[in-house]
Design goal:
Length: 147
């Protein structure tokens, strides 16, 4: 909204303010990533709405999906490449692209989940080895497995 209101009020200014440029970059990054991921990995996957509702609702859903995943990323890419007054950003502004606390929370939760699953797998393996050693069955007579 700030960018849309700034542009008509400053028709001859050479570049937008840094805050507006950072805001546009903060939105453009995730939108471009969304378009890339959707179009490479999820392109022909039907949505739940398209599968379970009437033909009219499915049509509106497919329209919304195309606008969100194709039209908006193309718009932001064209804006990035062709906008005449787009400000060049300094390298320190790269932090804007990873500055979402919720993204870090999700990544952290996924890492904790992977560590927990790995710990369970290792614990189960250790338990099974100890149990086999105590029982002294045929498995222990053959000796440990070498990798």
């Amino acid at each position: 909204m700030a960018a849309a209101s700034w542009t008509p009020r400053h028709p001859r200014t050479s570049r937008e303010p840094l805050g507006i440029a950072l805001g546009l970059a903060a939105v453009a990054g995730p939108v471009l990533l969304l378009g890339i991921v959707y179009n490479i990995l999820l392109r022909d996957t039907p949505t739940g709405v398209a599968l379970g509702d009437s033909a009219g609702i499915a049509l509106l859903d497919s329209y919304a999906v195309e606008v969100l995943h194709v039209v908006l990323p193309i718009y932001f890419l064209l804006d990035l490449l062709l906008a005449p007054r787009r400000r060049g950003l300094p390298w320190w502004s790269l932090a804007v692209f990873v500055g979402y606390p919720s993204a870090f929370a999700y990544i952290g939760a996924m890492m904790v989940g992977f560590l927990a699953i790995g710990a369970v797998i290792i614990a189960i393996g250790g338990y099974r080895e100890r149990r086999a050693a105590v029982r002294g069955g045929a498995a222990s007579a053959r000796g440990p497995l070498h990798v």
